[in-house]
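dumping the sequnces here before i forget
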Amino acid sequence: MKASYTAGPDIHVLPSALPIPGLGDQPVNAFLVRSGQPLLVDTGMPVDREDFLDSLWSLIEPGDLRWVVVTHDDRDHTGALAGILAAAPHAKVLTNALSVTRISEEFSIPQGRVVTANPGSRVKIGDRELSFHRPPTFDSPGTLAVFDHSDGTLYSSDSFGTVVEEISEDFADLSEEEFFHGFDVLNRAIAPWTALVDEAKFLRPVRELAALRPTRLLSAHGPTVREDAVPRLFRAMARIPSLPAWLPGADLDLEAALDTIESPAG
Ligand SMILES: [Fe+2]
Ligand SMILES: [Fe+2]
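..and the predicted 3d for all of it:
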């Protein structure tokens, strides 16, 4: 874990990073919104669990946390979820039913603590109105992007993320060339099916999110993107299906592997 920082009025980023050999670091963010009924979006990686809980409880009393939005069931979004629910008696999980089922492969969430939503759902939480959307790229069928109508923030889950040599808190501090190179890699790596899709259909969720005119885009795997920069990410996403599928390098040198087995060093 790294030190938390703010992405907007009372929006706290709990940041970490996943090193990806040969590519750089993938940011891994969760977000705490403290105003109104306090809301956490995602819960970090299992490897960070203890640090994540320390960082979270330094920002809010466990008894004050009311909602945990889990954008999807992947481990980098659910790492501290069980610990948070154990410590925060008033916190409910807001997620998709598919994610609840997939999370239950590892631990179960008491049914009375879950509220489910689908793309297209809207929910009022105190003064805040949230709408749920299917982001254009995703790697779990339960994935939800969340738009907070009270402040114009789009929480886009895995979508619109990047992988870079050195993570910055703000898009404006990164080399754009590096950001968009990592953007093209990550958004295809999590969704290799983008090379197979009908481009017109792929554009629908991009347009749906763009029509919300987010003032701030917060990906779990990217820096804070503000105001005028946001439409540039929508344009970059629109061209993803025109690119070939991205695959990681494979080490398929069987002879070399057998040599190491037959003649171990030392
Ligand atoms: Fe994911
Ligand atoms: Fe993720």
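The chain is about 30% helix and 25% strand.
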